[in-house]
Structure prediction request, 163 residues.
Amino acid sequence: MNRRNLISVVVGTVVLGIVLGVVGSRSLFTPAARAGQEGIITSVPGPIDTRILEQATTIPNHPMVTMVTVELPPGASSAPHRHPGPAFGYVIEGELLFQIEGSAPVMYKQGQAFYEPPGVVHLVTRNPSTKQRTRFLAVVIGQQGQPVELPICGPGTESTNRR
Prediction:
C-alpha cells in the first residue's frame, strides 16, 4: 500500500468513527427510535441519498471527504458504479446485499460496516427486504471538484452520476 492510499484509509477510518458516534447517538435517542415507530418508506422507487458533510482536508493531495446517508426502500437497489477513492459504509437500519467486483455477494446487517477499495466496481447495492427499508452511511474519499460516484456505462446499465 503506498503512502497516499494509507493516508486515505486512515482519514476515512477516523472520519467514519466520528460520524458513527454522532449518527448513532442521534438515532438511538429519538422518540421514534425508542418507541420502535420508524416509518417504512414504500412510495419511493429508488435510493434516497442525503449528503451530510463534504469537507476538504489539509493532508497531502487535499482529498475531499464526503458523507452521505443512503436510504433504500424495500426491494430497491442502485446501479453499478465505482468511487475514485476508498469508501467506508455502516448499516444503520435493515439489511444490505452488497457485492464488489471480484467478490461474492455479502449480506450486511444493522450495526455492521464494510469497505470498498478505490476504483473497484460496486456491482450490487440492494435492500433484500420486501417490508423494511435499509439505511446506511457511506464515507467516500475523493478529490476536490470531482464526483464521488462514477457511473458504469455498458450493456444493460443505466447508471447516472447522482452523488
